Amino acid sequence: MKIANHVFTRAFRGCLLASVALLMVPVAASTVTPEEFRQVVAFDVTVASLAEAAENDPEALLNDSRMFIVDGVVGSVTVIDDNPDSYLVQLELVDGRWYGTQRIDVFRVYVLAEGPEYEAFFPARPAADAGGSVIQRNERVLIAARIADIFEDQRGGRYAVLAAQELRVIR
């Protein structure tokens, strides 16, 4: 049995190394410089910076075509369309900035997740064994999204609305 395991392990390692080598060929051929990466992906944004941009310079934010990688705490989840073919959920992402122990500024952005692939994250009745796939209020999430719109409330407050491309819980 030990010899069989050893042979299997060597064969597995060989296949694994060959697979990794094959996967590296396209990566090496399409090397992206840090500058090129920053032109398509905004990795330095936060809920606070998006909220401030929506308030102070909404046109510049709307014209930013980069993919935003942002994390935040889910403040609310609203299922807008529960049809499996056109599933649509709105997340409110919140974050805060403390000033000592007396004051906190709360920032929020809204995220629209559209498509049947998101229903598993936000089921109407989560299964007891759903594990880490279900996203609920007060959980920290990581989202890849593009700017979709600026929402203006009745008081004139403006909020960034993002269209999710990918999302996951940070645990």
Strand order of the largest sheet: 2-3-4-6-5
In the CATH scheme, what's the topology name of the largest domain? OB fold (Dihydrolipoamide Acetyltransferase, E2P)
Total strands: the figure is: 6
**Strand proportion:** 35-45%
CATH domain class name of the largest domain:
Mainly Beta
Report the mean per-residue pLDDT as an integer.
83
Low-confidence stretches: 1-25
SSE pattern: HHEHHEEEEE
Rg is 21 Å
Count of domain modules:
2
Separation, N- and C-terminal Cα atoms: 39 Å
The largest pleated sheet is described as: 5 strands, mixed, barrel
**Please, what is the CATH homologous superfamily of the largest domain?**
Nucleic acid-binding proteins
- What is the SS-derived class? alpha/beta
- Outline: globular
Helix percentage: 25-40%
The DSSP helix count reads: 4
Q: What would you say the CATH architecture of the largest domain is?
A: Beta Barrel
